Amino acid sequence: MEAPLLLPVSTAVASSSSITVDDTVEAASTPAAASPSTQSIVFRVVAVLTVACASLFAQHEASKGFGIDVVNAAPRGSVAGRRFDLLFVSNGRAERILHYASRGVERALFPDASFPSKRVTRVTVRMAGDNLTADATVDAAAGAGGEYVISLSPGLLSRADTAPAAADAVAAAVRRAVARMWLWDGRGAAPARVTESMVEYLASAAADGAAEVPASRPEDEEGQPPCMSARFLRHLEQRRDGFVARLNRAMRDRWSDAAVDAALGAPARPVCAAFRAASSLTGSPLAVDSTSDGGRASSVAM
Q: Counting beta carbons within 10 angstroms of the beta carbon of residue 183, is it exposed (0 to 12), middle (13 to 18) or buried (19 or more)?
């Protein structure tokens, strides 16, 4: 009599177990339960990537060491104005050219803290409205310490046949202007022959050693082409590493005719004579620019 009473109880338990299993399967197959968790993970990943990109950008800007502005003052619709906007402003190329040029020049002039540098807080690269007497000029901004303006001549872009040629011309002009900006000049007393040769050398160094274009130079009082040139400076740099940086440091506050000897650590005249002799044998021109300064001491002419 008791056995039949147990059958319904067993059936109920089995039915209850089946319902429990069915509920578990339905919960596992419902996508809505996993959706909030997935969205949260994606949001966190995006947030981390955004913060990382912002940090990298901030570090990149800080590594430049100074602010950069780019201004196009060329007449609207002119060839130079359109090319400058297209090739240098819209894509940030002007900032990159200035940054890389400055980094190369600073590396050559200020290898460590014992070589004091100028204070540069902001540089403006400006396409001038009219042609300049030089491809580029650099001037300290009036009333603002540490701010400089590099003005580019529109002729740089007007006479370039192709976009790569225009980019190369502007980059070369900017490198020379940046070299002049960072260079000490003995408070204006350093001979033009020395400063111009150093500008050419530094522009070449900033271009990763690109070969400088030779040009004729007047002869000195002895009827010999003067040694002081970018090629001679490179020769002295190879002879004693850090020569150009030491010469620039010596020109910080004043100019002395013995500065070259001091930077080299030996009399420069015998080195100049040997360099002339080697150049005459190879037929390689000594000079890279046409600046003369005959009124200076013979030790400068070398």
A: buried
Tens digit of pLDDT for each residue in 85-137? 999 999 999 999 999 999 999 999 999 999 999 999 999 999 999 999 999 99
Phi, psi (rounded to 5 degrees) for 177: -65, -40
Half-sphere exposure of 221 (CA within 13 A, CB side): 10
Count of CB atoms situated within 10 Å of the CB of 89: 18
Burial class, 176, CB count within 10 angstroms (exposed 0-12 / middle 13-18 / buried 19+): buried
Cβ distance 113 to 191 under 8 Å?
no
Residue 24 token pair: 């578990």
Distance CA 217, CA 232 (A): 14
pLDDT (tens digit, 9 = 90+) per residue, 205-221?
888 754 444 443 544 54
Query: pTM for the full model?
Result: 0.70
Using alpha carbons only, give the angle 243, 247, 250 rounded to the nearest 5 degrees. Answer: 140
The stretches of 65-162 forming alpha helices (DSSP H) are 79-84, 93-109, 155-158
Q: Are strands 136-140 and 122-127 parallel, antiparallel or unpaired?
A: unpaired
Strands 147-152 and 122-127, by their bridges, are: parallel
Give the span between the Cα atoms of 232 and 201, in whole angstroms.
9
| Length of the chain counted residue by residue | 302
Return the H-helix or E-strand segment holding 138. Answer: strand 136-140
3-state secondary structure of 149: strand
